[in-house]
Amino acid sequence: MKIENILTDAIVKCIHALYGQEVAAGQVQLQKTKKEFEGHLTLVVFPFLRLSKKSPEQTGEEIGSYLLENEPAVAAFNAVKGFLNLTIASDCWIGLLNDIHADGRYGLATPTEASPLVMIEYSSPNTNKPLHLGHVRNNLLGNALANILEANGNRVVKTNIVNDRGIHICKSMLAWKKYGNGETPASSGKKGDHLVGDYYVAFDKHYKAEIAELEAKGLSKEEAEAQSPLMQEAREMLRKWEAGDPETRELWRTMNNWVYDGFDETYRRLGVSFDKIYYESETYLKGKEKVLEGLKKGLFYQKDDGSVWADLTPEGLDQKLLLRSDGTSVYMTQDIGTAETRFADYPIDKMVYVVGNEQNYHFQVLSILLDKLGFEWGKSLVHFSYGMVELPEGKMKSREGTVVDADDLMDEMEATAKETSAELGKLDGCTEQEAADIARIVGLGALKYFILKVDARKNMTFNPKESIDFNGNTGPFIQYTYARIQSILRKAAESGIAIPPALPAGTALTAKEEGLVQMLADFAAIVRQAGSDYSPSAIANYVYDLAKEYNQFYHDFSILHEKDGQTRLFRLCLSANVGKMLKAGTALLGIEVPERM
Q1: Fewest Cβ atoms nearer than 10 Å: which of 165, 337, 368, 392?
Q2: Where are the beta strands (DSSP E) in 468-538?
């Protein structure tokens, strides 16, 4: 039984015994004692003053004295104004550690068939270029959110919507057709997404040259852009695509497949995955149908030019275009079509969109429109809005010089991890394969942790060098703490010391040991909080604080060389469970931990 529950029951009895009044368990407010005061848990006394009709100090003293005399869990107390700080007896912490030790999935709920179904959309790439640094933050946040919501007992479906149609796709296709000489990923040795991205850049280069040439002939910039033969060809290619021209569609399929193969490789390396991938080319027409259906029902209105609009002024917003006068759809229409498809595929209870904060208004509007169109989860959809991520100037050169792509970033991280680990002697005695594995685990762990420890709503600067520091608030520091614990446990096993299924009572504990057990017990509440707040950073901050606290304990106390056998077993059991919680917490963030380092 949780210590908070034991105390709550005791306090309810105490109030009745002292003041003859019944109070509900919900009126008992317990919180962690602030570091500057002695104690583990603090009772807020103020709600009971109307019953005691005494000062906060006197009421606190009376409740404390009663608990000390009648509740074995309370070893000492001190009252400070309206707060009663309670010190919990060592045997309670041993009992709590036994409970945590016995539960292999402590703090993690397991979904059932009756659990709510949450769908999370993340990644949302275009098929005209590789995934970049912004996608890295998006993918890591989406993947971590999926893990956290599942750990809160939800069934989770991870989805991706690929922007695989439009003028930007045709630019890459046209450039390849004009300048590609039949080049393929196989013939060039390039990843497919990088190859297609190169042709998108090539289009832009030729287009700018064309504009400059036309402007040199005396045309204005607007006239030059309107008359650009290259852009006219790209628009013609889009018209052919929309008309279903076989040759255009075949080229589109071929080049998109190159990109998908490249994306898959990047996703695998990043450690993210999807249960279902949707494609705009398959959903945008459904959105158009849904909007026309809404028009018939009087939910939307049509202007004289044939365009269809939603009037959102009653909701305090503006008029929103849903279909252009030529009948073509806008992004909002595509999102409605995708929602229609998803709702037909899954009985969604909640929909979470992981999309940057520049789209805040878009999702405010989408929520209203989906609700009007009858989607049950429309009104309660969650836009998980996050800020921009950038690199410090000059830290890393990207392939195009403007955007840092994900593959380059991961290469850089692994190389830096290998170099730093070797300098610090972390790879001593490792085989080449072991060193490569550690570099991969540490490099990607550093990247993921550095991004996920920041509140998602904030803009951030990702510093590759700073992220690989074995002493700071970093992934490698947490990973090294885990590896250190595994080393201790291996040495204990080699010495024939086995941790029993349950520790006996009676071991005197230090304040540091009691604090660590309390931190372990907090994991369940942190997972719940991270789920309700949609906050991967809450998990990241918890695992860092736990690793930091354990390292101080490791520095101050002997474990394997402790002479008292019971104390040694307690410290080994405590270490094992700190390791267990570090592994569980980092796994929620999609971070691996190495067994040796």
Answers
A1: 392
A2: none
| Confidence check: pLDDT of 258 > 50 | yes
β-pair type (308-311, 301-302): antiparallel
Q: Which of the residue ranges 124-128, 217-221, 276-280, 471-475 would you say has the lowest mean pLDDT?
A: 217-221
pLDDT band for position 295 (cuts 50, 70, 90): very high
Tell me the H-state helices in 374-460.
406-423, 432-452
User: H-helix or E-strand containing 68?
Assistant: helix 56-70
Alpha helices, H only, 323-431: 331-345, 360-372, 406-423
Q: Tell me, what amino acid is at 63? A: I
CA 451 to chain centre: 9
- Average pLDDT on 248-272 reads 97
- State the burial class of residue 449 (Cβ atoms within 10 Å of its Cβ: 0-12, 13-18, 19+): buried
> Residue 237: pLDDT above 50?
yes
Domains of the chain, start order = 3-88 (3.30.1360.70), 122-272 (3.40.50.620), 275-386 (3.40.50.620), 406-588 (1.10.730.10)
Helices (H), 83-184: 90-102, 133-151, 167-179
* DSSP-assigned letter for residue 321: E
Burial class (CB in 10 A: 0-12, 13-18, 19+), 344: exposed
CA distance 572 to 578: 10
Cβ neighbours of residue 26 closer than 8 Å, sequence gap 6 or more: none
User: CA angle, corner 363, sides to 357 and 364, nearest 5?
Assistant: 105
> pLDDT tens digit string along 438-478?
999 999 999 999 999 999 999 998 888 888 888 889 999 99
Distance from C-alpha of 434 to C-alpha of 438, rounded to nearest angstrom:
6
CB 351 within 8 A of CB 319: no
Q: Which amino acid is at 351?
A: M
Contact 392/465 with Cβ under 8 angstroms? Answer: no
Rg (CA), the chain: 30
Q: How many whole angstroms separate alpha carbon 402 and alpha carbon 128?
A: 16
Asked if 86 and 34 count as a contact pair (C-beta separation under 8 A), the reply is no
- Between strands 155-162 and 276-279, the pairing is parallel
Q: What is the pLDDT of residues 513-539, one digit of tens each?
A: 999 999 999 999 999 999 999 999 999
b/e map 488-506, b = 16+ CB within 10 Å:
bbeebeeeeeebeeebeee
pLDDT at 313 (0 to 100): 93
Whether the per-residue pLDDT at 203 is higher than 90: the answer is: yes
**Is residue 504 helix, strand or coil?**
coil
